[in-house]
Design a protein that fits this description.
Length: about 130
């Protein structure tokens, strides 16, 4: 991830990045590291993240506008922290697990010559197994 631009609003400093999505755990760690650095600089304000639909990148928002010299040091430190973070998180493939349906094997097939009582006890065992699995 890279910082592309710096913008100022009334009371905040926005760092626009090329990051498309920031995983929550990475965001918490980045916030923790950055706030530790800010405290060392004598700044008591924190940072937060914003995503806007009108923009491609993620915004890292510093909740103040520091003096120019401190701002340059903050941007440099922030750039070092975000450099190893990928622009896009690795894709996650959802895995859908379906409940087992009634299975039909040759042993429970009436055409295979098994008695109906053996079939009912087999289906009862399957039902008990399915009930305990949930």
């Amino acid at each position: 991830m890279r910082i592309l631009e710096r913008r100022f609003t009334f009371i905040h400093t926005h760092f626009l990045t090329d990051c498309e999505k920031l995983p929550a755990e990475v965001g918490r760690q980045l916030q923790k590291d950055m706030e530790r650095f800010l405290r060392a600089q004598g700044i008591v304000y924190g940072i937060h993240f914003e995503e806007r639909r009108s923009e491609k990148g993620l915004r890292i928002v510093l909740e103040c506008i520091p003096l120019p010299r401190k701002l340059d040091a903050i941007e440099k430190h922030l750039a070092e922290l975000v450099r190893p973070i990928p622009r896009r998180p690795r894709p996650v493939t959802p895995i859908l697990v379906e409940a087992p349906g009634p299975s039909r094997s040759r042993a429970a097939d009436p055409a295979a010559g098994e008695s109906p009582s053996a079939q009912s006890s087999a289906s009862g065992a399957e039902a008990a197994l399915f009930h305990t699995a949930q």
